[in-house]
Specification:
Elements (H helix, E strand, L loop, with lengths): L28 E4 L6 H27 L9 H29 L7 H8 L1 H19 L5 H22 L7 H10 L4 E3 L5 E2 L13 E5 L1 H6 L4 E2 L1 H7 L24
Parallel strand pairs: 1-4, 3-5
Antiparallel strand pairs: 2-4
Amino acid sequence: MAGKKKEHTLVSADTGQALQSGQKPPKPQMVAAPPVGNATSLRIGAVVLWVLAIVFEVLALLVVLGKLNFKFLPTMWQLILLIVLDLVCLIIGSQLWKKANHIKPASEKNPVKFWLWNNLGMIVAVVAFVPLIILILTSKDMDKKTKTIAAIVAVIALLIGGASGYDYNPVSQEQQQAAIEAIEGTVYWAPFGKVYHTHEDCGALNQSDKLTYGTVEQAIAANRTRLCSFCAKRDEISGVVTDDVDVKDYIPESTDAPQ
């Protein structure tokens, strides 16, 4: 025989205060998504920053070769400063590039071109740091301490820049178009994650006290490139990239959620 249903005390994640008996948790705060933006402008900004990153690399190369010397700083600190400036420009440029790719994705008809286009920031990171690392390691003019520290900083910058330039959540032109054609109306997403939802009352959003709503294009531009499996099953949507959650036992909280 089933035991008596246990009553739970609900505590607000925001205030830490318990709700009174019979009181329902407030609905998540809804925030409109910002405009999608202009992919061309973002790409121009990314290229400008990447060019600046290469400029800082060239300056660092000249310091290693002894052709440039900022006399107010020791050689080691000159190199560290230029490497950091190189990395900052690289990272910001890569984020702009990835943002542009989610606004106006590339086609996946050519897999190699698709991968290269989406991960151009990682390729630029290699160009921006590998020649410098090689020159530092092979330099015969720098002292051992300067060479060791500068090389370590440059390698770390390469790893960070490469990781920031890689798109772990790419979307293709075909995937975007399929989602736009299959989903009508408003979609919702939480502050974190890579998934968007077609229902505000989706059980997967129970832990979120703030939701953003907008179009599918806005969701993808915000790096939410996969449709929630719960919502896909609920709406019988197929042909759209979804997350890989097992939904066989999912029961929606209601069937009249806003679309």
